[in-house]
Amino acid sequence: MLSVARRLMIVLLLVLSACSGAPPTVDRIEIVNPTGYDLTVEVSGEEQPGWLPLSVVEPGSSATVREVIDQGERWRFRFRHFGETVGEISLDRDELESSQWRVDIPPEVGDRLAGE
């Protein structure tokens, strides 16, 4: 028979092991950049204060990022050019799933950079 202290130790170890696992992820996100500018793309959840860097996407190309930490029901994407924020969009998880996890950078981001 196990002592109370030993049983508590086992329970504590089980709880700690459950808490220390890797965060949930989505398999991949494709980011499409129709602009003529290199853009750094970051992501954050609706309630999260910080931003997670995803990729730098070259002009007129796309980048696929694998094993992205799940941001929950609402994902915010921020687009930066040489450190300056030039755009942001917010998408529901349902929108991302229906687009097969493809995020199109809005053309307005390129227009803003071109000074239009």
The overall average pLDDT, rounded, is: 89
Number of extended strands: 7
Biggest sheet architecture: 4 strands, antiparallel
**How many DSSP H or I helices?**
3
Shape: elongated
* Radius of gyration, whole Å: 20 Å
Which series of helices and strands comes N to C? HEEEEEEHEH
Give me the secondary-structure category.
Answer: alpha+beta
Read across the widest sheet, the strand sequence of neighbours is 3-2-5-6
Distance between the termini: 77 Å
Question: What does this 3D model show about the protein?
Answer:
The chain has 116 residues and is of the alpha+beta class. The chain is built from three helices and seven strands. The protein is elongated, with a radius of gyration of 20 Å. The model has no long low-confidence stretch (mean pLDDT 89).
